[in-house]
User: Fold histidine kinase from Sphingomonas abietis.
Amino acid sequence: MRVPAFLRSSTTRFFALVFVIQLISGTALLMFVRHIIADELERTSRTLVTELHDDLVADYKQEGLSGLRRLISERLGSTPARDAAVLLDDPVGNQLAGNIADWPPIVPFDSGWQVVTLYRMGRDHPEPMGIIASKLPDGTHLLVGHVVEGDLRVRELTGEAMAAALLLAVPLALLGAIVATRVITGRVERIAETARRVGMGDLSLRVPHDAGMHDAFSDLAASINLMLGRIEALVAELRVVTDSLAHDLRSPLTRLSATVERALRETDDEAAISALERVGSEAGTLLAMLSTALQISRAEAGIGRDRFVATDIGQMIEDLAEVYGPLAEERGFLLSASGTAAGVVHRELIGQVIANLVDNALKYGRAGGTIALSARQDEGAVILSVTDDGPGIAEAQREEALRRFGRLDPARSASGAGLGLALAAAVARLHGGTITLGDNAPGLSVRLTLPQDTA
Assistant:
């Protein structure tokens, strides 16, 4: 049976660990206290019995049997000895003194400390006693004890109190686990939120932390901030390099195109005209590839989030359908647009992505088929899709199709550089969204899922 995802999460495991540790610690502490109390009660009772036994044996040695009998009567008659139990009998088992009628069969004549239940004379119920028994030199037997019923009751009450405390410890352990989990997850979430927003392109953010603290989270925050500073510097350098590269490469390509156009106007040679037209076409393709490749690089570096604006995406796809409608009709396609959606997006990049997808559908779709543009909102996300009736892309090749210059074999005979889907994927990531290639049965379905609000 598959375990639910929340039970496998590190947060749940940490919560369970803190709860179990606190519960085990509390239980161990309560058991230790109960053990200490029980030991102290038993030690006190044993000391009383041992002292009384030693006193009686000492008196026997000084005054003999008669003196011992007299002393037992005096001891049992005193108020402090109201919980005492004493039996002195002769070698054949006749009672000589004490408040126990007969020697208990379960007690050896010479035994150490033990707890038994006995009747004292004048009592109508048995009582638990801690006793010590010994055999005197003349063959008589001495049993000395102390009623421990109160001690047992204290131990019982202690056990009940411990059980009640343990029941109270459960919600306290739960509360402690919740507090500890919230503290830890709160600090982790702040780091994760900073990382998420940095990943979305806001490279100026840093993880908040107290520089005066030197715990693991502060060290982690400081290390992440150091890394983010380095990333921001590298991206700034990338922006400068890409802008310079675009300027440096576009200029000669533009001059090349202008030179080709001028040469076309100045020649009448058909062969030269054909060659110059091919050169001009390749120059235009190269210029478009350069622009798209630079856009992909900038999008993957998170550049462009400052140009996100609230956009009526439904109206945008209708405008694009109107622009491409005549071209689609000329090539035998039916181009449709439907749906309403709005979101905060990079308007120019989203428009270019949809235009590229429409251009791909016109190139590879089935003539006479339908190209459908749609936009809708679903649970805080904007879903854009472009579908056609062409051959589509096999599932095993879809990942390759999303890579830069990832042109599949059937497409290599057509013009293009294999950057359209790569740009769509980069733009989706820039918005914190995803791109999905699916089967339109027949044809290809390209779906972009973008957060409605990327703030």
Q: What stands out?
A: The radius of gyration is 47 Å. The chain is about 55% helix and 15% strand. Residues 216-298 form one domain.
